[in-house]
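Thread: Newbie trying to understand structure tokens

Hi all, I'm a second-year student working on a class project, and my supervisor (Dr. K.) asked me to get a predicted structure for one chain before our next meeting. I've only ever worked with sequences, so writing a 3D structure as a token string is new to me. If someone could post the tokens and maybe explain what I'm looking at, I'd be very grateful. Here's the chain:
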Amino acid sequence: MAEQPLPNPSGTPDFFLCDIATALPKDDMASMEHPVFSLSTRPDRRVLDYAHGATRIRITPSVKGLATIHDKDILIYCISQLVAALNAGRDVSKRLELVAHDLLKSTRRETGGDSYRRLVEAFERLAGTRITTNIVTGDVETTTGFGLIEAWTVTRRTKSGRMVSVSVTLSDWLYRAVLARSVLSLSPDYFTLRKPLERRVYEIARKHCGRQASWRVSMAVLHRKSGSASPLRVFRKMIRDMAMAAPLPDYDLSVEPGDLVLVRPRMDLIEADGPALPPEAFEAARAAAPGMDIYALEADWRRYWLTTGKPRLRSPAKAFVAYCAKRAS
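---
Reply by user tm_fold:
Sure, no problem. This is what the structure looks like when written as tokens:
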């Protein structure tokens, strides 16, 4: 499908300055759903192919290797800044100017000289990793190839050689997802997760479980969705160990008979952002809004609930399904 023009919020500035210190971490839902980033801590030069339903993804590395899930911190920071600006009514652009020190602090990284070198390497992998996909972002299906970022530039350096300011240009695909609000909030403690698989499983839990009472997935499907290169038997042990250690913010895991993984949100997460929804509400919502992203609708519905004064709902499930039906019509 040919590229369609990007939506234009209120203006088209040459660049957007990342200066919102209170921006909450946000992640795009497409890369939370699908395994776009490598979980390896060494250069990963595999060409990855992934299919789920009608969605097809091919991820091709550069000579520097695939972009890693830790490299994704840069994108999360950029998405967070853009969404906070949109919420404040500011003009945005897919080209962002950011202060490297602010990025490192926001993503809970050290700010020593070696951290700046690793940041450059992350920019190189993000720009070099090529995606070919037909994922829908912002109600537009695009089958095309692109980099995770189009370009990056170190615009100033101190005498010590450390970066002071960096320019990043996001891909149209990712920028469109931001403008369409196809994003979800992350716990700030996400950045404290050092193991790549922990980060990936948290993303999957946040996307699929959200604030519903529970979510079950087979070990084989979770293995495929995670993008882990480990054999299933090794992956199964890692998930069992993760369930025992309980390192994930907001969610607890348990392994059930039948090789199933049960994900439950912690009570403070449910209470923090509105009514809990049972699993059957999501099934009814899918029937009411066929083909639409139910989890994006859930996020929109919760925002609507908050902005309308948190009204008492006699049946949150029925209210959610009715909202989805209205959106679908």
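A couple of things are worth pointing out once you decode it. The chain has three domains: 16-185, 188-269, 275-328. Confidence is low (pLDDT under 50) at residues 1-5. Feel free to ask follow-ups in this thread.
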